């Protein structure tokens, strides 16, 4: 068995995993294990790190093989999971981490993973073992809840919030799987809004050709009240929350609607549609939040605008931030979402200087 001091990043050579590895390496959080099915890709990423990744190593790990996964997690003090799609991986890696005495950070891992880990006495087992599991440490979910919390933290009485999240970006097969599978009542409610402490169904219509500062061109915004948005509303106490998923190109939205209508499971068409949108419109991503402080009438009293070229870098930023928090002992044992345990004002300040995005609070 390896010395149990390593920080293992599963899916560490992917779009999100690579961003996590680079940030952790820069922060001196080694030794690092860059893990995944393709040992050659893992080794190439390690070699490309400063000083040839002298404090990092590549490892072949097949998460569908319990023995392979146990060997990997047994050598780690912390496992950062960037493998996907999340809605198929679910709690598989997290349970291996707990079984082998490692803490856990998931760049995805939304409510279905939390529910699986917390079922029965699951949450108590993590706490009793002194182990930490941090979920939803990505751009969405994750920053999409932390950034508006930073706005709310600066308000006297936050009463209403609008959110616009999305853009135009290439999809990895894993990300396409999460987009395809992220539907159903456990994930959220289309066309719904949060009003007066409850979900109001069929409350909102799509907004076409919307002009917002977070996006370089007019966008179509589709209302979808996610489980993350409901938690945000409850935690901040806002009486009204309207949440919109933004598409800057038409092909992905069309292909996704068709896949859902036909109950499709293939991701190749979504990847192709996203690539077509990027070729036509370029790649860009944004998050914009409007907050009303004290009164709901009139224009918003505060706004937060984030613009980025790459949402995967944003996910890497937050997953690495959560990992460093765990390593520094700043997060108590148990199963929690990143937005519940990270300081929103500190995260917002750090992101503003990270280089992964342009961020303004107005």
UniProtKB/TrEMBL annotation:
Provide the species name.
Streptomyces pactum
**PANTHER family, alphabetized:** SACCHAROPINE DEHYDROGENASE
InterPro entries documented for this protein = NAD(P)-bd_dom_sf, Sacchrp_dh_NADP-bd
The UniProt record lists the Saccharopine dehydrogenase NADP binding domain at 8-109
Which SUPFAM superfamilies does the record match to this protein?
NAD(P)-binding Rossmann-fold domains (SSF51735)
Under Gene3D superfamilies, the record lists: NAD(P)-binding Rossmann-like Domain
- Pfam families given for it? Sacchrp_dh_NADP
Please give the name of this protein: Saccharopine dehydrogenase
So which domain of life are we looking at? Bacteria
| Signal sequence extent | none
């Amino acid at each position: 068995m390896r010395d149990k001091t390593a920080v293992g990043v599963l899916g560490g050579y992917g779009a999100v995993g690579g961003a996590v590895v680079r940030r952790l390496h820069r922060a001196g959080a080694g030794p690092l294990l860059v893990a995944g099915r393709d040992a050659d890709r893992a080794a190439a990423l390690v070699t490309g790190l400063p000083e040839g990744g002298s404090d990092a190593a590549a490892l072949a790990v097949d998460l569908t093989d319990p023995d392979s996964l146990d060997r990997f997690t047994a050598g780690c003090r912390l496992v950062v999971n960037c493998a996907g799609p999340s809605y198929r991986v679910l709690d598989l890696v997290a349970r291996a981490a707990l079984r082998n005495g490692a803490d856990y950070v998931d760049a995805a891992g939304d409510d279905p993973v939390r529910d699986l880990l917390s079922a029965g006495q699951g949450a108590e087992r993590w706490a009793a073992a002194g182990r930490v599991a941090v979920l939803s440490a990505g751009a969405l979910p994750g920053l999409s809840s932390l950034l508006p919390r930073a706005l709310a933290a600066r308000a006297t009485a936050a009463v209403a919030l609008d959110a616009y999240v999305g853009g135009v970006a290439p999809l990895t097969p894993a990300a396409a799987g999460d987009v395809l599978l992220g539907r159903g009542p456990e994930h959220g409610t289309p066309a719904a809004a949060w009003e007066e402490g409850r979900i109001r169904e069929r409350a909102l219509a799509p907004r076409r050709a919307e002009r917002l500062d977070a996006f370089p061109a007019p966008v179509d915004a589709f209302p979808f009240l996610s489980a993350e948005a409901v938690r945000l509303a409850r935690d901040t106490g806002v009486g009204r929350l309207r949440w919109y998923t933004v598409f800057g190109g038409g092909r992905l939205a069309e292909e996704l609607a068709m896949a859902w209508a036909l109950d499709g499971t293939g991701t190749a068409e979504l990847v192709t549609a996203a690539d077509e949108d990027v070729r036509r419109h370029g790649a860009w991503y944004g998050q914009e939040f409007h907050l009303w402080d004290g009164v709901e009438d009139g224009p918003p009293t505060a706004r937060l605008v984030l613009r980025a070229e790459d949402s995967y870098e944003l996910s890497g930023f937050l997953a690495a931030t959560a990992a460093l928090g765990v390593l520094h002992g700043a997060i108590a044992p148990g199963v929690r979402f990143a937005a519940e345990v990270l300081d929103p004002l500190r995260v917002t300040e750090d992101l503003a200087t990270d280089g992964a995005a342009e961020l303004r609070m107005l």
